Amino acid sequence: MLNIRKEKKNFTVIELLIVIGIIALLSALLFPAITLVRQHAYALKAKSMAQSICKAVDQFELDYGQMPIDAATSDKELYSNQNDYDQFIAILAQQDYGGHSYVDKSDLNPRKITYLNVPSNYDKEGYVDPWGNRFVILLDADYDGKVKVKFNGTDKTLYGRVFVYSFGKDGVPADLKKFDPEKDGVVSWK
Asked: Above 60 in pLDDT, residue 44?
């Protein structure tokens, strides 16, 4: 009887290094694509959250005949004053944030209707975009159907009632006067 032994061939160190190098090269090529997909998903989520704010304000206004802000004589921008922003979101969400009792103090939503669903991390972070920044909310508080703003040093008129934008992946720019949300951020109106 013939005894045929098959020789076991082991990988050599060079072959292993070549395989590891190929895997590293493929990973390096794939990483930027994964990052782009993640940033695109963040932008879609930010746009969805911004549009949710717009819809919540519209529904609130249909129910109560006014916007969920204290009486104002001119257009309102909710971003620079954190307290106004947090109160605005708390009224729409019927959920307080940061240890403040906005909901109980406000008579703007006496029926306690939830217009805005907030993420599970709302109690820790507030209502922020996927990059961790507050949204900028522009309201037509004087009910003339338009909001005048300055984007990138240029006066612009937005026609409508509610406009929301996120600064995007780069966060709050050092010079807000040069920021244009339509080019550099995520907007609810496009």
From this structure: yes
